[in-house]
Design goal:
The complex is a heterodimer.
Chain A lengths: L6 H17 L2 H8 L7 H9 L18 H13 L6 H14 L4 H4 L5 E4 L15 E5 L2 E12 L6 E8 L2 E8 L4 E6 L5 E16 L3 H36 L1 E2 L2 E2 L4 H27 L5 H27 L9 H11 L7 H10 L2
Parallel strand pairs in A: 1-4
Antiparallel strand pairs in A: 2-3, 3-7, 4-5, 5-7, 6-7, 8-9
Chain B lengths: L6 H17 L2 H9 L5 H14 L17 H13 L7 H14 L2 H13 L4 E4 L15 E5 L2 E8 L10 E7 L10 E7 L5 E7 L5 E14 L3 E2 L5 H14 L4 H17 L1 E2 L2 E2 L4 H31 L6 H21 L27 H8 L9 H11 L4
Parallel strand pairs in B: 1-4
Antiparallel strand pairs in B: 2-3, 3-7, 4-5, 5-8, 6-7, 9-10
Helix pairs in contact in B: 1-4, 4-8, 5-6, 5-7, 8-9, 8-10, 9-10, 10-11, 10-12
The chains are: A alpha+beta, B alpha+beta.
């Protein structure tokens, strides 16, 4: 039993936290996150230079990490800065390409942006509901259907697409230049795309991809859970600082017990969230990964909503403004529940396991 | 980061499990499993069993008779004890007074008192709360006035758990009436045979006799029975409460309770199918299972931290708050799953063949009511939030 990070991971966390706090201020973040391309290509390149993508890939695929704890360390750091850079799509692509035994060079070097097109409007979280279909054509395949809310799709060169092939879930690769793409920004910053496929030429990457796709979904869910822990830590710290400083009725609002106890409850749920993320990270490559990821996503979803809403409430009007960074953290904390399955989706999975 | 137990820890886990399986008396296991009141003899025998094995004073330093376990080993012990339906160790001597004497006791007090806790010669109880001093413990009024080499104690203590079995009590008493209330309190050890002490039972909400009130009328106690300096008892009181909180997450008990609820909900029929298939019920079970899974890790993280910094910190209040909320949710589910079968007052159905609920679940409503105490005692959950406000949030 040991809850300390390894030296390597501690260094990784320190490097990322230092870089992001120096170079990715809240002000800068607000500037780049809401206008196309919904991130900062220069900063993206610097993060790649720091090795952030290599940390998400296992050694035998050319990286130096790739375990659940590498993912949680990277995304907790990104969460602390509420960083909108498209690292999550790179993680999903890494998991999928590693499962398929493909070369990761153009992905890990940052030369190409990848995005994973998994969910659809009527099947956002559940792979079994996917409608996009592949048909064999001239020794290759064509895809038809619509992929929705493809995170990072606004800048992707290559899409990895989940589609039905002869009734099975398969994984394909398409070039952005071959597809119709509608790009847009997200309410909590960052960007995505709708991918409209109409007999779009595709390369078959994996014919039987159900397990690989679930693994990518699990890794993605773990990543946003860890991101939420980083977001919550900063949101809570900021709220406590504000409670010490803000004067009403002639005293700091932090002296009011009605607020103090609610701030403690926020902290308690953050610690619970941190714990379940540790558990899910430790199980990510095991046979119970989906179960513990579901537990994490459900608990983090609840903790994130509590922290988001309470942070706004305790700040009062100031956290309702675009200018104040907590408002953007609060949005991200809420909208994470819309990625990889919300609290109800994951609770149902645990219910079905009882 | 390594969550799995080491080989050494797994071997220890197996040793503990097989010890309990082969040594716990069946009637004790049945009593724990069904939540019936344990007899004094059952508790005394259980302490003796552990003492003989060297496992009783599990939190004590080796030089005072502890087994030298790491916090993780202590956690394993607790988990296995719950899994095997062992009784809870009576905490007043072992988890409360013991650590206080290790830190604040004189050599003489340590030599005389500690061995008698392990041997079972003494059964200690706690004289902290008073009718007018609950959460505001520092406002306590029971007075100890110097008279030569003695103190003369007058006042009333209450909520004295298992005091009916005890022969000794440790008390917080007021030794100075003026000034800051915290600065006039002393910690004193009293023999319950001393003239002037009367113990009266308090019947609890579910009907059980677990706590008592203790009246002191001109009770003469030697000054040498004081632990620590006069008027510095508040430091000791707070130290003791931190130790009281360390095992309070109750993870082992909650894990056991969750398994029992699931097993019951698979048997109980509602609307023509097992209760566990009712989505509203299942959602509550699933959510508490998730919270408990996280609590296991939170508990281990804090144990690990305590191991590194040589003692529990203020964050153990988080364990108390969340651990008791989870335990209470489970007690609520364990009551509800039985429907009307939870309603009979235990003991009033005389023909066992006509019992509505399985024997080990017949007390589920009583256990639910009794368990409401957990968010009140040991520093109510609101007091824990005050502690966290000061220590962790620094507000």
């Amino acid at each position: 039993m040991n809850f300390d990070l390894t030296d390597d991971r501690r260094m990784l966390a320190d490097t990322l936290n230092r870089y992001l706090s120096d170079k990715y201020s809240a002000e800068h973040r607000t500037k780049v996150a809401y206008d196309a391309p919904y991130h900062d290509p220069e900063k993206w390149a610097e993060l790649v230079e720091l090795g952030i993508l290599f940390a998400l890939a296992p050694e035998d695929a050319g990286g130096f990490g790739g375990s659940g704890f590498d993912i949680s360390v990277v995304f907790e750091a990104l969460g602390r800065a509420n960083c909108p850079e498209p690292i999550l799509p790179a993680l999903l692509a890494t998991r999928l390409l590693v499962s398929a035994g493909e070369n990761l060079e153009s992905l890990l070097s940052g030369e190409k942006h990848y995005a994973a097109a998994l969910g659809e409007i009527d099947a956002p979280y559940d792979l079994s509901g996917i409608q996009t279909t592949a048909t064999a054509k001239d020794g290759g395949h064509n895809l038809s259907g619509r992929k929705s809310a493809v995170y990072g799709g606004q800048v992707a060169d290559i899409f990895l697409v989940a589609a039905k092939l002869d009734g099975n879930l398969a994984l394909f690769e398409i070039q952005a230049s071959d597809a119709q793409i509608e790009t847009y920004g997200m309410i909590d910053g960052g960007g995505a795309a709708e991918l409209l496929l109409d007999n779009t030429p595709a390369r078959l990457v994996m014919a039987d991809a159900g397990t690989a796709l679930q693994d990518a979904m699990n890794a993605g869910a773990l990543a946003v859970c860890a991101e939420a822990v980083g977001l919550m830590d900063v949101t809570h710290d900021t709220t406590i600082d504000y409670m010490k400083m803000r004067q009403q009725f002639g005293r700091a609002i932090g002296s009011f017990q009605v607020l103090q106890h609610r701030a403690v409850d926020m902290l308690t749920e953050i610690e619970q969230a941190r714990s379940i993320v540790i558990k899910a990270a430790s199980e990510l490559d095991g046979e119970n990964a989906s179960r513990y990821v579901s537990m994490a996503k459900n608990l983090v979803g609840r903790a994130a909503r509590l922290n988001s809403e309470e942070a706004i409430q305790m700040h009062g009007g100031i956290a309702m403004t675009w200018e104040y960074p907590v408002s953007h953290y609060a949005k991200r904390l809420i909208m994470i529940d819309h990625q990889f399955g919300d609290t109800d989706f994951h609770l149902t999975r645990i219910m079905n396991d009882l | 980061m390594e969550l799995a137990y080491s080989d050494k820890e797994i071997a220890f886990q197996e040793e503990v499990r097989s010890f309990f399986t082969s040594n716990l008396p069946a009637e004790t296991v049945d009593a724990v499993r069904s939540g019936s009141e344990l007899t004094k003899q059952m508790m005394v025998d259980y302490h003796a069993l552990l003492a003989k094995k060297g496992w009783l004073a599990s939190t004590w330093p080796v030089e005072f008779g502890g087994p030298g376990w790491t916090p993780v080993e202590r956690h394993i012990f607790e988990e296995e004890a719950c899994r095997c339906y062992a009784p809870r160790i009576v905490p007043f001597g072992l988890a409360m007074l013991g650590p206080v004497l290790h830190k604040f006791g004189t050599k003489k007090q340590q030599d005389e008192i500690l061995p008698r806790i392990i041997s079972g010669e003494d059964w200690w109880c706690q004289g902290y709360s008073e009718p007018g001093a609950g959460s505001d413990l520092a406002s306590l009024k029971t007075s100890a006035v110097r008279d030569g080499d003695d103190y003369i104690i007058n006042g009333q203590k209450t909520w004295t758990t298992l005091g009916q079995h005890a022969n000794k009590i440790f008390c917080l008493v007021r030794t100075k009436a003026d000034g800051k209330p915290q600065a006039g309190i002393s910690f004193i050890l009293v023999d319950l045979d001393t003239p002037g002490i009367e113990m009266r039972p308090i019947r609890l909400i579910e009907g059980g006799h677990e706590v008592n009130e203790v009246f002191f009328t001109d009770v003469r106690v030697p000054v040498e029975n004081r632990v620590g300096e006069e008027n510095l008892g508040w430091t000791i009181a707070k130290y003791l409460l931190t130790h009281e909180r360390t095992n309070i997450a109750g993870v082992g008990f909650s894990m056991q309770a969750l398994e029992e609820i699931k097993a019951l909900a698979r048997k109980v029929q509602r609307n023509g199918k097992p209760q566990i298939e009712d989505p509203l019920f299942a959602a509550r079970v699933a959510q508490v299972e998730i919270d408990l899974e996280a609590m296991k890790i939170t508990n281990l993280r804090m144990l690990f931290k305590a191991q590194k910094q040589n003692g529990p910190g203020p964050e153990t209040s988080i364990l108390k708050i969340k651990g008791t909320l989870i335990g209470q949710e489970l007690k609520d589910l364990a009551r509800r799953v039985l429907g009307p079968s939870a309603a009979p007052f235990p003991g009033t159905i005389t023909d066992g063949n006509l019992a509505l609920a399985p024997a080990d679940a017949a007390n589920n409503a009583a256990r639910y009511f009794n368990n409401r105490k957990t968010s009140i005692f040991g520093g109510s959950n609101e007091i824990q939030r005050n502690i966290l406000t000061k220590t962790m949030l620094e507000l």
